[in-house]
UniProtKB/TrEMBL annotation:
Protein name: Lysophospholipase L1-like esterase
Domain of life assignment: Bacteria
Signal peptide segment: 1-23
Keyword Cell inner membrane: no
Organism field: Bacillus oleivorans
Pfam families documented for this protein: Lipase_GDSL_2
Stored PANTHER family: SPORE GERMINATION LIPASE LIPC, THIOESTERASE 1/PROTEASE 1/LYSOPHOSPHOLIPASE L1
TM stretches of this protein: none
Residues of the SGNH hydrolase-type esterase domain: 35-224
MF annotations from Gene Ontology: phosphatidylcholine lysophospholipase activity
Taxonomic classification: Bacteria, Bacillati, Bacillota, Bacilli, Bacillales
Length: 239
């Protein structure tokens, strides 16, 4: 009888432990995803319309792998600069609250700081890189203040000048490389994850960026970027 009681106690303890474990596991699979940035996460296509973008495809990847996406908010805005995103994080109560609750955040920002100066006065282009870098530091540190546990992934840009003549690219591409370098440095210094996209997009730019008059991607390009983000997210999963 004592052996039977002892055995039942062990079985009861095992079931008790298992029930606690199974109750905990689903919460680890919950995802609350916030996308921030410019026209790329907003889903601008090469022909001026909007379609699904990389945050949408990234959300689908979570769902297809049995994560429970309990919330998804895409606050990206076409034309956004790092100043505008910085101000949103400081002043927009809705965005602040979603960041506080988020498990994952993706950011694509900085290119418009560079592009606006290239269009107005190319000699000031490097100033745009400096401003983007400083603002990104503020953006990332503000996110840390709001939610120190959230996983943050920041995108490096593909070559938006791929259709330009070689002599023009010789001037423009180093500027884009300098911007990406600043984004990478700020991201990694803050303990977040940098996600480069150039190696994925640039060799096949005609496939992903089919309009020579526009530097936005089609849905194939956004799917490709989502895959790069997913690689980075998988690398950060704790088993």
């Amino acid at each position: 009888m004592k052996k039977l009681i002892f055995s039942l106690m062990i079985v009861g303890a095992l079931f008790s432990t298992s029930s606690v474990t199974f109750a905990y596991l689903p919460s680890e699979r919950n995802v609350e995803y916030v996308a921030l940035g410019d026209s790329i996460p907003a889903g601008m296509t090469p022909y001026g319309s909007y379609d699904l973008s990389y945050p949408d495809y990234l959300m689908n990847k979570f769902e297809s792998r049995n994560y429970d996406v309990v919330d998804y908010d895409n606050f990206a805005v076409s034309g956004y600069t790092s100043d505008q995103l910085k101000n949103d994080l400081k002043d927009n109560n809705v965005i602040q609250q979603e960041i506080k609750e988020a498990t994952h955040i993706t950011i694509t920002i900085g290119a418009n700081d560079l592009f606006q100066r290239l269009l107005s006065d190319p000699s000031t282009a490097s100033e745009g890189i400096t401003i983007a870098s400083e603002n990104l530091q503020t953006i990332l540190s503000t996110i840390d203040e709001l939610n120190p546990d959230v996983e943050v992934y920041v995108m490096g840009y593909y070559n938006a000048f791929a259709y330009y003549p070689e002599e023009v690219q010789e001037f423009l591409v180093p500027l884009l490389d300098a911007l990406n370098l600043e984004i990478e440095k700020r991201t990694e210094a803050n303990g977040d994850t940098y996600v480069p996209t150039g190696d994925r997009i640039d060799p096949h730019f005609e496939k992903y960026m089919p309009n020579p008059e526009d530097n936005h991607l089609n849905v194939k390009g956004y799917k490709a970027i989502a895959k790069e983000f997913w690689k980075a997210i998988k690398n950060n999963i704790q088993y």
